[in-house]
């Protein structure tokens, strides 16, 4: 037996933060400690809960005697630190402190892992301790473990993820109930799926942080958050959704990470997905992550990507894993061990576009438009003309083009040239087509 | 650091079996050994491949010098034994031998784990070694790891799985292309999705073995294969598929494991699934496993459940995990540590039925039928009458009833009584409705 024997004393668990997720995790640690102990093969003990203000948090589920505002001391005495405060500081400093004092760390902090993952991985490795963060990406959906462990003998080529429930809810309502963006957003806010200030969700910032984490795991490399190309859903219109539907697509906000010839790449943008694609069937606030790997082929992981209980489920699974290692030896895969792979510029991505144009209603227009595409080496898969009310208010008709696959830079140049053509009254939208 | 230091020498890997999966695994061990070593944090070395007949397997990818028909000796010198022979013996004896000589084991052998899982878990635990078997359930889909590790801090209530690609292909073709069972089966055979003797698939034996494994993992208990209630798809007709579609359902062969008040239960049978359910969108030979857990809520894992490369992906992921433990210490979760939970009889399951009757076309028939259901405490959710050619050949009309949820025993008694009614010419079928 190479593993260390079970320690005689219970493993000491410190939880930092007693918000929605923290409360669920604390509840489980208090009420299910027997089951958790059986699964770990060693007893666990909640030794304290770090909160900002002990008086204010007095009515939480946790016994008042365990509450402390001295997080640093709490961390120093723990075997496992569970960071559920969110934000960069003081979470980052406390986690580094935890590793220094010999604790393993479980966190749900997506912003922190996306921004400071490599620093934290290295600190974990130096300490010979675990850093688990399943809950940082897509809540209870075990995509981090799948990429870190299950697919560790395979080569991931591409991941397409619906990783933000708010934007999926909004786009799904626009698709299935015919709402416009403003209606769908206000409905999402009424139902609690969107914040009063929805910027982080609708502008794709939340999804971009997850894309950075997924890229690092999928390709065993580093993906700075700043290198993730990002576009939100605010410009997506009901007309875009309708045009996509007519062509057999639904619009989803996708986080896409790809291993291309030019390097690895991560981007977030609204995307047309074929209705037959498994991601097209992901409705409401659900999340799903679609993985394409050399040997495994196509895999999809689906579930609730947010909420107190689903996030707590992921955190508790990580606590069991970290505790098993503390009790029996062992270490989570070291993410810092891998070499840096070049990051390809966003302009080097290859994709397809659905371009919606308002054009003059006269002969020769399609020839002019087709020539502009051909000049940039972009070929056309399908073209349709529509007489829409919106186009008529601009004194033209709508022309919808779906291109074949081409370089993003060439597609961008094509769209810019189309906007300059005298036959083109307006470029209504240009949306990427993915998952084909 | 509680974990053992990295060993100085490469980890010795022995592969038993050089069939479709074995060849893929051997290829990866030979050509990707550098990448695998980086992910493990230690070098690995393929030390031999056990085959029945060295001369016959000479043209395989593996160097002839590594081929041996002496599997026992090969096992005795290995750090990790990868069992890809299939069948119960000699696989079982060789795996027990591997644990005795201090090796960890990775296997794709579903029949063996379903029949002898507890014995093997115990042998692994006694030896302080790992037993990994991701590939035994649903190929590359990491459902074993999800249940064993990711959900280890949650309570799984129910799992519904499409775990047999052959039957999903057949039922999907009947649904989408209107084929009858014989046509769909022969198409599946032509395309290589079904064996010349399709019994193990179409009679649900393959799915039952997977159900036994899933139940054991989901509920941390033992589920003998003999306790899995099993019904195949051979009795499903085109008329059943059409009637289901009219009511908003598709028919899938589901492996269902449930934690009920009467105990845990595992069963395999054709099931009506609502078209809006994520499992309804699983087409062709794909597999998917839908998990309902207390905290995580609904999760689904989707992908290719068979084939050389997808199965090899799962095996390689397990090899990396087992090798990491050999190199750095640590141990996979011990499945033998859990107590036995009572197993509920199949008759105690609660489900709903779609009952298709051919009844006499005269007044009072519905009253007679409704009374029979009410007498057994079974209430009706929907009832439709159809004038079908098939019913007409029996001199009646078709009556399709969907019941509310009731005890299986009461539903069985209801169907038996319906068959005896003078108004009922024939019970055409009675299929369970699941996923609602």
From TrEMBL, chains A, B:
Q: Which Pfam families match?
A: ACT, Homoserine_dh, NAD_binding_3
Q: Which domain of life is it from?
A: Bacteria
Cofactor(s), by name: a metal cation
Gene Ontology biological process terms, A to Z: methionine biosynthetic process; threonine biosynthetic process
- Residues reported to bind NADPH: 110
Q: Which residues bind NADP(+)?
A: 16-23
Q: Which PROSITE patterns match?
A: ACT, HOMOSER_DHGENASE
- Reported EC number(s) for this entry are 1.1.1.3
Leader sequence range is none
Catalysed reactions, as listed in the record = L-homoserine + NAD(+) = L-aspartate 4-semialdehyde + NADH + H(+); L-homoserine + NADP(+) = L-aspartate 4-semialdehyde + NADPH + H(+)
| Domain ACT: from-to ranges | 354-432
Q: Which InterPro entries would you find in this protein's record?
A: ACT-like_dom_sf, ACT_dom, Asp/hSer_DH_NAD-bd, HDH, HDH_cat, HDH_CS, NAD(P)-bd_dom_sf
GO terms, molecular function:
homoserine dehydrogenase activity; NADP binding
Its pathway?
Amino-acid biosynthesis; L-threonine biosynthesis; L-threonine from L-aspartate: step 3/5; Amino-acid biosynthesis; L-methionine biosynthesis via de novo pathway; L-homoserine from L-aspartate: step 3/3
Sites where the protein binds L-homoserine: 195
Which keywords does UniProt give here? Amino-acid biosynthesis, Methionine biosynthesis, NADP, Oxidoreductase, Sodium, Threonine biosynthesis
Is the keyword Nucleus in the record?
A: no
The record's active-site residues are 210
To which protein family does this belong? Belongs to the homoserine dehydrogenase family.
Report the function annotation for this chain. Answer: Catalyzes the conversion of L-aspartate-beta-semialdehyde (L-Asa) to L-homoserine (L-Hse), the third step in the biosynthesis of threonine and methionine from aspartate.
The protein in question is named: Homoserine dehydrogenase
């Amino acid at each position: 037996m190479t593993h260390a024997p079970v320690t005689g004393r219970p493993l000491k668990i410190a939880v930092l933060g007693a918000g929605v997720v923290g409360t669920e995790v604390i509840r489980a640690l208090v009420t299910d400690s027997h089951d958790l102990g059986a699964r770990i093969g060693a007893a666990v003990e909640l030794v304290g809960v770090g909160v900002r203000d002990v008086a204010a948090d007095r009515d939480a589920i946790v016994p008042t005697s365990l509450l402390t505002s001295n997080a640093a001391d709490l961390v120093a005495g723990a075997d496992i630190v569970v960071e559920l405060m969110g934000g960069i500081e003081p979470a980052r400093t406390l986690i580094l402190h935890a590793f220094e004092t010999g604790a393993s760390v479980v966190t749900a902090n997506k912003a922190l892992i996306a921004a400071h993952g490599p620093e934290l991985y290295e600190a974990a490795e130096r300490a010979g301790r675990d850093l688990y963060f399943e809950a940082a990406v897509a809540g209870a959906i075990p995509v981090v473990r799948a990429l870190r462990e299950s697919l560790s003998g395979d080569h991931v080529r591409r991941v397409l993820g619906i990783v933000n429930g708010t934007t999926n809810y909004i786009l799904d309502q626009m698709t299935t109930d015919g709402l416009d963006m403003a209606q769908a957003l206000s409905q999402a806010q009424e139902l609690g799926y969107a914040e009063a200030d929805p910027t982080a969700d609708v502008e794709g910032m939340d999804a971009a942080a997850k894309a950075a984490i997924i890229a690092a795991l999928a390709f065993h490399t580093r993906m700075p958050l700043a290198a993730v190309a990002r576009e939100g859903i605010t410009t997506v219109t009901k007309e875009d959704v309708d045009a996509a539907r007519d062509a057999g697509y639904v619009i989803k906000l996708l986080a896409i990470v790809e291993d291309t010839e030019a390097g690895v790449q991560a981007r977030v943008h609204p995307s047309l997905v074929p209705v037959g694609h498994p991601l097209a069937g992901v409705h409401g606030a659900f999340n799903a992550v679609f993985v394409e790997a050399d040997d495994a082929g196509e895999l999809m992981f689906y579930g609730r990507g947010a909420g107190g209980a689903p996030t707590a489920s992921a955190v508790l699974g990580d606590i069991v894993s970290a505790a098993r290692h503390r009790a029996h030896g062992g270490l989570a895969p070291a993410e810092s061990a891998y070499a840096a792979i070049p990051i390809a510029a966003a302009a080097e991505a290859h994709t397809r576009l659905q371009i919606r144009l308002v054009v003059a209603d006269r002969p020769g227009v399609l020839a002019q438009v087709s020539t502009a595409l051909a000049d940039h080496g972009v070929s056309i898969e399908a073209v349709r003309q529509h007489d829409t009310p919106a186009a008529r208010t601009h004194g033209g008709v709508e022309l919808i083009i779906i291109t074949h696959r081409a370089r993003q830079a060439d597609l961008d140049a094509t769209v810019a040239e189309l906007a300059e053509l005298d036959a083109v009254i307006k470029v209504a939208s240009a949306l990427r087509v993915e998952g084909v």
